[in-house]
Amino acid sequence: MSESRSPSALPADFASRARALGSATLYEASGLPCAVDPLVRSIWSGAFVAAPAYPLVCSPGDNLAIHIAMERVPRGSVLVVSTSNFVAGYWGEVLTVAAEAAGVVGLVIDGGVRDVAAMTARGFPVFARGISVRGTLKASAPSVGQPMMFTGVPVAEGDLVVADDDGVIVIPAAEAERTIVSGEARAAKEAVMMEQLAQGASTLELMGLTQWRKSA
């Protein structure tokens, strides 16, 4: 395990600020093509993670890269694992226990996982394309810790991953502060709008869409 590497160059309190905003607000605020394939979803309701990414690539049906990553990943990171969308049981209870010991705070994978009940009971955040009992080989490790494309979204070590029930986004580290600040401004504006709606205003009025009202 590398102890000398900084887990993140992200803004202070990024995790709590991201939790308050959520993935959808941050995606809208970012203005970036940072949304992961919506088929990559939480395996249990209410899961949340906001953490720096540690990217790796597995060969289809082979999870050796994950085992190697456990020896290299900085504490406080979320693993982002590309499998070329091949659904098998790359991850289960054993790797979850290993991840917790290594300080890994979550998993995002475009493949599959298993032992769902155990991960749910442990409260370990996992976002996956599917669930599969199929085991995996341990024969190749295409990439560990290097930049990659994940369902069309670029991911580099240290980028901000935010994942919740609405989906998964990956924001470049250099854009994280701007995105969070923009998200907070957006949330404040929406809070005012919702207060006005509660007092009887309409969305057509507040969004400048009154031209779509039917004539009396």
From TrEMBL:
Needed co-factor(s): Mg(2+)
UniProt source species: Trinickia violacea
Gene3D superfamilies noted in UniProt: Ribonuclease E inhibitor RraA/RraA-like (3.50.30.40)
Phosphoprotein recorded as keyword: no
PANTHER family listed in its UniProt record: 4-HYDROXY-4-METHYL-2-OXOGLUTARATE ALDOLASE 3-RELATED (PTHR33254), BLR3842 PROTEIN (PTHR33254:SF16)
Protein's UniProt name: Dimethylmenaquinone methyltransferase
GO molecular function: metal ion binding; methyltransferase activity
Binding residue positions for Mg(2+): D115
Pfam families: RraA-like
Top-level taxon of the source organism: Bacteria
